[in-house]
Amino acid sequence: MSDIGRYNTLKVRRIASKGAYLHDDNNGEREILLPARLVPRGTAVGSELTVFVYLNNEGLITATTVKPLAQVGEFAYLKIVSVNDTGAFLSWGLAKDLLLPYSEVPQNLKPHLEPGKSILVRVFQDEHERIAASARLADFLDNEAHTYREGDAVVIIVDGPTDLGQRVIVDHRYWGLIHNNEIFRPLHKGEKLNGYIKTVRQDGKLNIALQAPGRAKIDDIAQGILNTLAKHGGFMAVSDKSPPEQIYQLFGVSKKVFKQALGSLYKERFIVIEKDGIRSIDKS
Questions:
Q1: What b/e readout covers 239-277, taking b as 16+ CB neighbours within 10 angstroms?
Q2: Lower Cβ count inside 10 Å, N or C end of the chain?
Q3: pLDDT per residue over 229-284, tens digit each?
Q4: For 103, which DSSP code?
Q5: Longest distance between any two alpha carbons in the chain, whole Å
C-alpha cells in the first residue's frame, strides 16, 4: 500500500466530479481520491502526481497536494491550536489538525500544553495507521552516529540550550550538539537550518558546526561576500576592522571567519581593501 503520512508519486487512474482517483501501486484494487479542488490544472488519466497520503476525518485514505510541515519520521515545531481530554491538537499545514496524545507527552511538559504555544514533536504512525505526534523525542533519536564524516552537510533542528551549547536534532535521526563557541547568533527552539559535522566523537556523538569546516568554509563565505558586494554596487564601507556585530549583520559570520575569507579574496585579487571599505575588482 502507499505510504500513509508520506509523499507518494501516484498515477491518475480516472477522473470524476469528486476529483482524481489515483492508483495505489501496492494495492491494485484500491484507489486514492485527490479532491477536485486540489487537482492541478492539466491533469489527465495517466498523469503522475506527487501527493501527501493520509487518513481524513472519516478515517478514509486520501491524498492532498498541500504540503504539511512534517511527514512521518520527521520532527517539527508546531503550534497548539486546542487541548481536550485526549491531548493537544497541532497545526501542521493540513485542514485536519495533528493529535498529540497525552500518552506521548512527558510529564514535565503536560502543564505547558496551552493553545498558542508551540512544541517540538516527531510525527509518527500508530498501530491503526493513524498519523499522530509525540513529544517523547528521545524515543526516536540515537546518540550514536558513526556513519558521518567531518564536513558532511546535515539538516538540524534546534531543541534547546545546555550548559555546553545548543542541543540539536540531526537529519531527523540523531542528537547533536553545537558548542557555544560555534554560535554567533541567537538560536531558537524549533529552528531548522543547515549545519555541518564538526567531529564524530569516539562514543558516536555528533558535534555540529553552523559553517562548513576548512577551505570549504572560506570559499563559501568568500563567495557570499562577493555576492553581497555586487548587491551594493561593488563597494561596502566594511573591513576586517569593523565591529563583529556589523560583520555578522551583513554576512552572518564571525569576525574571525570574515577576516579569513577577506584575506583569501584579496590574495586572489577579487577585491581591493581601501581606506573606507572593500571594493570588488571587475574580472571581466
A1: bbebeeeebbebbbbbbebbbbbbebbeeeebbeeeeeb
A2: C
A3: 989 999 999 988 898 889 888 888 888 888 888 888 888 888 999 988 999 987 65
A4: G
A5: 75
